[in-house]
UniProtKB/TrEMBL annotation:
Name of the protein in its database record: F-box domain-containing protein
Origin superkingdom: Eukaryota
Alphabetical list of Pfam families matching this protein: F-box (PF00646)
Domain F-box: 5-51
Annotated InterPro entries: F-box-like_dom_sf, F-box_dom
Lineage per the UniProt record: Eukaryota, Fungi, Dikarya, Basidiomycota, Agaricomycotina
Amino acid sequence: MTKKSVTFSELPLDVVFEILGFLPVEDIIRIRYVCRSLRSASYQRTIWATAYKRSELLLPEGPSCDQDASQLEELLVRASRIRRNWTSSCPMTFSKRQFPHRLPAHSFDANVISGRFLQLAQKDGLAWYDLDANLSSLPIMVYPCRNVNTAVGFLNHQVNADGQGPGVAWVAFVCDQPPSTIVILKVDFSRLEVALHSRVPANNLIAMTLSHDWLLPVREFRSADDPMDLYHIPTKSLISFPMHERVRHLSDLTRMNFIITSQFLFLLLSVHSETLVDVYPLPQNESADEMPSNLVRSHTGSYPHPISKLQLFDPSIVNTSIHPIEQDIQLSFLGLIFVNRGPTGWTSKIGLHLFDMILHPDGNLTFTTQSERILNVGMSSTELYHCSRSGQCLAVTHSTPGPVIFAHHIQRKDSGCVMNVKSIKVPELAQIRDMLAFDGFTGRICLVNGFSNIEILDCA
């Protein structure tokens, strides 16, 4: 008996949807020109949800149940364009807009939340602007406050405040109106609401770090034995931990990096040809009554290069269910490294390293460099911005004087890690002063041009 062959048009719809979901984004769109039935099928949410889950593009967490087919398609198409722009042999192309609000020469600080909301701090308060809307000099929200300290580094934010999603952020800034305090706001961008959450004393403050619902104020100290403080924002709890034992002078703080994850606080001190690392587990309870008064160090070790800047490579992969003393925990970091010795002798360059740090139950740390590249800049001031998820990473390094801007694409798989780089040439922006933000999910770079203009560059 001869088997009857089944044509594509005779396949059940659920099978067709499953097959189409395995196609690249561009091919799903191309099939709309084949026939009416495939055109109709290409608009089904099932297809785009499958394509989203399988995609190796840099995408936000998802798909979520409230995202329809057109929204998922838009995200995938944009991510595909960004990756093509980032990785092709052709020069980078950007559309350019200028923020219409003219800024003072120095007395402001700014950054961008989720690649969309420009956050501007001036002496009389904070204001937020939606960069996805038609650019307007009118803010979507304001928070009046007298005597805001606009020094660079004193304006911080963290999305997913108290686990309430990407549309809710903690915002911290310093108010110098006596007494000097760190003001912590809760900002809801979906409801356009700003509320005061708490205040923390800001005496002798020189820097601060905000991440995973924790605020770390870095202060001047009178004695190297003075403890440091860590503030848990939701419960308004203050916890102490010791300064790194090798810190003896205030100038040593300039060589420190502080990384906060959902599980750990990392203290990193760069000395000569290595970086010393101390690790402190963070409390995992949500009750103020159960918060300890002190943190206890669990791990210590050293990375064989001095680190200038460091960021957690992919925060979404941190497993909060693992207890830090029960088994090995592996975290990946992306960092700027001072390269002191090259193959032919001494040099003075900046390197970009992707490395793993493994926390062992016995308290030791081991490190494995997965990928490294020397940037074509000397020992200059270099900033690092990146977006990553599931082994995909887009990063930007900005070095001055110059300035020199590099676009980095990093892809990590079980078989290894590939790190590519290309130059971003924006000749009309020769007076770039600072980079405010880079968001790889939207393909957006925000820069301060000269002293009073903010430029918005989109590569999608």
